[in-house]
Amino acid sequence: MFIPELKYFKPETLDEVYRLLKSKENSAVLAGGTDILVEMKQGIRSLNNIISLNKIISLKNIDTTTDSVIIGSCATHNQIAESNIIKKYLPALANAVLTIGTHQIRNTATIGGNLCTCASCADSAPILIIYDALLEIGSDSGKRIVKATDFFVGHHINALQKGELLLNIIVPKPAEHFGAHFEKFGLRESASISVASVAAGILLENEIIKEANVVIGACAPIPMKSEQAISVLLNRNITDLTKDSELLKEVGEAAAQEVLPIDDIRASAEYRRNIVNVLTQRVVLKALSKINNIIKG
Ligand SMILES: Cc1cc2nc3c(=O)[nH]c(=O)nc-3n(C[C@H](O)[C@H](O)[C@H](O)COP(=O)(O)OP(=O)(O)OC[C@H]3O[C@@H](n4cnc5c(N)ncnc54)[C@H](O)[C@@H]3O)c2cc1C
């Protein structure tokens, strides 16, 4: 299907973007276009005005402050994966975005677009929640900050109001003995949408798990925190959390029981639960192994 006639704007400043968003009826911004153009071609979305973000260079930056890593919403997945800043401070994010689409898609698709599309299977979302990311949102009336967890309101519904733009993703630099990992399961080796995905983050004090987080993707309308898996992990000694250990199985089972998967063309709900069980065990162990690397390194 062809995209119906529309007006295409290429503003060069944020103020111009805000003005266009406010004044143009039935408009949307375009970052990489890998979601929005597909939706328009499929007739899922019909827009009269497209506002390209391509000339807003400041939205493509990846930078650090003393405490945080700042990722511009228009940074592409490949830019993030290749960034030395991301590899140093947020290695699990670098690995997570490499699971998105193909090399060509990652060259174009942006992290902001992935979050704003707000699909339940968005692969950058679970790991950003694990890293306690904050989203900086701008409009002609100023800026506001929203926690990544609060940005996902429903499947394809985000927390942006009309006229608002996602500017930056602000990620606090993780503590020294923190490790994180994300894995997804799709029906192909590459360019596959997640049937289920899991991200875990663990903070150790000596050998005790002081903080833990487990976030599951594609098994509920929005990324879902597994409170049950987290409570199984908290205050446990990592020497009890080895491959095939009873404790690790308990964590996987807790996550699998808590998710709310659906049957769809990609998998049955039951299959998704099994995948969540396996992935949870895997990411918890890998998150732990990253901490050991940090301690040794
Ligand atoms: C072949 C293929 C494979 C894919 N594989 C995966 C995959 O494995 N995992 C995955 O998660 N996704 C996948 N996707 C989906 C898509 O590539 C990602 O969601 C991508 O990150 C979207 O980014 P974009 O820059 O292309 O967004 P766009 O299409 O430009 O925009 C998407 C939506 O977000 C809005 N938007 C974009 N930027 C902003 C902003 N800064 N502020 C406010 N609103 C904004 C747009 O208006 C639009 O509604 C795939 C897509 C294709 C076509």
Describe the fold and architecture:
With 297 residues, the chain is of the alpha+beta class. The protein folds into 3 domains: 7-52, Uridine Diphospho-n-acetylenolpyruvylglucosamine Reductase, domain 2 (2-Layer Sandwich), CATH 3.30.43; 57-172, Uridine Diphospho-n-acetylenolpyruvylglucosamine Reductase, domain 3; 178-296, CO dehydrogenase flavoprotein, C-terminal domain (Enolase-like, domain 1, 2-Layer Sandwich). It has helices spanning 14-23, 36-41, 77-82, 84-89, 91-97, 103-108, 111-117, 125-130, 148-151, 227-233, 246-258, 269-296; strands spanning 7-9, 27-30, 49-52, 62-64, 68-72, 134-139, 142-147, 152-154, 157-158, 165-172, 178-185, 196-205, 208-217, 224-225. A hairpin with a 3-residue loop joins strand 4 (62-64) and strand 5 (68-72). Helix 10 packs antiparallel against helix 11 (246-258) and helix 11 crosses helix 12. The mean pLDDT is 95. Flavin-adenine dinucleotide is lined by residues 28-36, 38, 53, 73, 100-101, 105, 109-110, 112-114, 116-117, 121-123, 160, 165-166, 191, 193. Flavin-adenine dinucleotide (FAD) binds at residues 28-36, 38, 53, 73, 100-101, 105, 109-110, 112-114, 116-117, 121-123, 160, 165-166, 191, 193.
